[in-house]
């Protein structure tokens, strides 16, 4: 079949359109900061979707002589007496002489929307002078919330991650034997009512409050919904009015919104941990022109005692120890004054400090001095 001129024109038009589309896609991929963006679900919390803390007091039995000292008459003895009385046993004070019982506190986190009959993990921690919970069994323990209501009941074999053993002269301890866990050790007995489908407004709480980030979240949601249903009310809260298209389907709305990506903003901040010497700097840290010099006076004193003794077969002289002291003074003469130019980036600033041979401890002092001089455009937070 012969190729006509009209066929050639149509071929080149299609090829040109395809190359143009490919070029546009390359530009969009190059311009979009994919690595810097984050999903909304990773930077916010949905109001009402949270865990609830539970706590309870119970007894662990079956310990191999590592329980509380009941003879002293503290709360473990009273709790054991009360438990036995409920079971129809009337013990005497002389009969309560066991080292196999320990009083414990039981804690758990009740996840949001947990249904009745589901199970949660619990943590068991010794409350008295027990040495170890290894091999113990937690008796039925009600777990209460902040309102005093029982939301779960825990019981089961405790799993201890550590141990302690030893003799008269030495003791070996690994981990914390007085703390244990019970996987799926509590059964939920009461549900926390929370109906999302009837909600007319939804609030998003930013984990790192920021005006710019809150506005970007609202703009991304409005662009997705095609309406102005979202607006930031403060740096940590974004309020969403449920659109009519999602009426009665708030779960679907949250699913669609949490997958949207935005670029979080942050203030220029430097975090300093004085105890460990850890320094964390944000990427927006900037400095004005400043000159930095750092020098230390180091004095090193080394004692090298030597033994002086008389020659062989000598009738005079005694063997004695002669002190030899070596003193070295380093005044930091090799340290030079370094100039940091205006508006340098974080990488350039770190490189300048590293060029001076400055360690983390001295860097903390320098950062605080630069901040005091007004040349550091960042917030310093000391932990």
From TrEMBL:
<keyword id="KW-0732">Signal</keyword>
<keyword id="KW-0282">Flagellum</keyword>
<keyword id="KW-0574">Periplasm</keyword>
<dbReference type="GO" id="GO:0030288">
    <property type="term" value="C:outer membrane-bounded periplasmic space"/>
</dbReference>
<dbReference type="InterPro" id="IPR001782">
    <property type="entry name" value="Flag_FlgI"/>
</dbReference>
<comment type="function">
    <text>Assembles around the rod to form the L-ring and probably protects the motor/basal body from shearing forces during rotation.</text>
</comment>
<dbReference type="GO" id="GO:0005198">
    <property type="term" value="F:structural molecule activity"/>
</dbReference>
<keyword id="KW-0975">Bacterial flagellum</keyword>
<keyword id="KW-0969">Cilium</keyword>
<dbReference type="Pfam" id="PF02119">
    <property type="entry name" value="FlgI"/>
</dbReference>
<comment type="subunit">
    <text>The basal body constitutes a major portion of the flagellar organelle and consists of four rings (L,P,S, and M) mounted on a central rod.</text>
</comment>
<comment type="similarity">
    <text>Belongs to the FlgI family.</text>
</comment>
<keyword id="KW-0966">Cell projection</keyword>
<dbReference type="GO" id="GO:0071973">
    <property type="term" value="P:bacterial-type flagellum-dependent cell motility"/>
</dbReference>
<protein>
    <recommendedName>
        <fullName>Flagellar P-ring protein</fullName>
    </recommendedName>
</protein>
<dbReference type="GO" id="GO:0009428">
    <property type="term" value="C:bacterial-type flagellum basal body, distal rod, P ring"/>
</dbReference>
């Amino acid at each position: 079949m012969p190729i006509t001129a009209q066929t050639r024109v149509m071929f080149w038009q299609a090829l040109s359109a395809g190359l143009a589309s490919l070029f546009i896609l390359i530009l969009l991929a190059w311009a979009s900061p994919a690595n810097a963006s984050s999903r909304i679900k990773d930077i916010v919390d949905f109001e009402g979707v949270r865990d609830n803390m539970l706590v309870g007091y119970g007894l662990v039995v079956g310990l191999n002589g590592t329980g509380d000292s009941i003879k002293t008459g503290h709360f473990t003895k009273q709790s054991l007496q009360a438990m036995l009385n409920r079971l129809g046993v009337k013990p005497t004070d002389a009969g309560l002489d066991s080292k196999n019982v320990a009083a414990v506190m039981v804690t758990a986190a009740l996840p949001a929307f947990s249904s009745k009959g589901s199970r949660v993990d619990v943590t068991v921690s010794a409350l008295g002078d027990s040495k170890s919970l290894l091999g113990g069994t937690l008796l039925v323990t009600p777990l209460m919330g902040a309102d005093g209501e029982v939301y779960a009941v825990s019981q089961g074999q405790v799993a201890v991650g550590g141990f302690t053993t030893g003799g008269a002269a030495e003791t070996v301890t690994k981990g914390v034997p007085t703390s244990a866990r019970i996987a799926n050790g509590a059964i939920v007995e009461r549900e926390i009512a929370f109906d999302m489908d009837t909600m007319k407004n939804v609030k998003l709480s930013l984990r790192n409050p920021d005006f710019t980030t809150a506005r970007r979240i609202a703009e991304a949601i409005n662009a997705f919904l095609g309406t102005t249903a979202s607006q930031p009310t403060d740096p940590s809260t974004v309020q969403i009015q449920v659109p009519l298209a999602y009426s009665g389907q708030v779960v679907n709305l949250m699913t669609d919104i949490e997958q949207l990506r935005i670029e979080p903003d942050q203030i220029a901040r430097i975090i300093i941990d004085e105890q460990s010497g850890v320094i964390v700097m944000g990427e927006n840290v900037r400095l004005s022109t400043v000159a930095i010099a750092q020098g230390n006076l180091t004095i090193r004193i080394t004692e090298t005692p030597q033994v002086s003794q008389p020659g062989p077969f000598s009738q005079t002289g005694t063997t004695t120890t002669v002190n030899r002291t070596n003193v070295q003074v380093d005044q930091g003469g090799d340290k030079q004054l370094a100039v940091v130019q205006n508006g340098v980036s974080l990488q350039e600033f770190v490189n300048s400090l590293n060029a001076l041979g400055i360690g983390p401890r001295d860097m903390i002092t320098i950062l605080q001095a630069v901040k005091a001089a007004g040349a550091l455009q960042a917030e310093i937070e000391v932990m």
